[in-house]
Amino acid sequence: MNILILGAAGKIGRQLTDDLLAQTKNDLVLYAKNAHTRLKLKKSERVKIVDGDFKDLDTLTSAMDGIEVVYINDMGDDLSTNTIIEAMKKSDVKRVIAASILGIYDEVPGAFGQWNKRMIGNLPRMKAQIKSALAIEGSGLDYTLLRLSWLYDEQGNKNYSLTQKGELFKGTQVTREAVAQLITDIITAKDERYIKKSLGVSEPNTDWDKPSFY
């Protein structure tokens, strides 16, 4: 299987690259701005590196040649998201996994939901995330949307729990390591349990008023 990681130089993108190389036999295309400089340590016969922007339709389309799964590491710009969707349709790529953030459906309850709204609810980036999620869900693609809780790093902590669209969000935080493992698990799933799903992603037993690191 050939997998395109858009935003491969980010922390989750880097962890996902390592996990896929270690846990699968898939070939990877790593796509990012100045990727050859930022990802120079990711050299492998199973890895191709592409310098590109999310708004560059031609470069995106070229990078998708032979690709079966696209992972989008950032949907904070809805114009970029729409360009990615257009490139996928031009390239006849159907499967996409896209990282979004919690709160796009106003699905976070209680004190944590109020805290989350104060922190990010009125930011332009939140509005762009909402538009991006709507675009993905209405694209006709075989999508999995990941609504990530507040992110932190803890080596070896790959614990995650999921909620479905329509359910209240649970959990205040999740490690980037856990998110990368979830994406790997989704890619390697033998059935369609993750297709056309919007999943809330958090760490089990973190139902607090705010993340532990705030």
Distinct helical segment count: 7
Rg from alpha-carbon coordinates: 16 Å
- Average per-residue pLDDT, rounded, comes to 97
Unreliable sequence segments: none
Largest sheet: 8 strands, mixed
Give the end-to-end Cα distance, rounded to a whole number of Å. 40 Å
Helix content: 25-40%
Shape: globular
Strand order of the largest sheet: 3-2-1-4-5-6-10-8
Q: Approximately what portion of the residues adopt beta-strand conformation?
A: 15-25%
User: Number of DSSP strands?
Assistant: 10
Strand-and-helix sequence, N→C? EHEHEHEHEHHEEEEHE
Structural class: alpha/beta
Keywords:
7 helices, eight-stranded mixed sheet, alpha/beta, 10 strands, two-stranded parallel ribbon, 23% strand, 214 residues
Short note summarizing the structure:
The protein is α/β, with parallel strands linked by helices and 214 residues long.
What does this structure look like?
- With 214 residues, this protein is α/β, with parallel strands linked by helices.
- The protein is built from 7 helices and 10 strands.
- The protein has helices at 11-23, 35-38, 57-63, 78-91, 110-121, 124-137, 176-188; strands spanning 2-6, 27-32, 47-51, 69-72, 95-101, 142-148, 150-152, 161-164, 173-175, 197-202.
- The strands form 2 sheets. The chain has an 8-stranded mixed β-sheet, sandwiched between helices.
- Helix 1 (11-23) packs across helix 7 (176-188) and helix 3 (57-63) crosses helix 4 (78-91).
- It starts with a strand and ends in a 12-residue tail after the last strand.
- The relative contact order is 0.15.
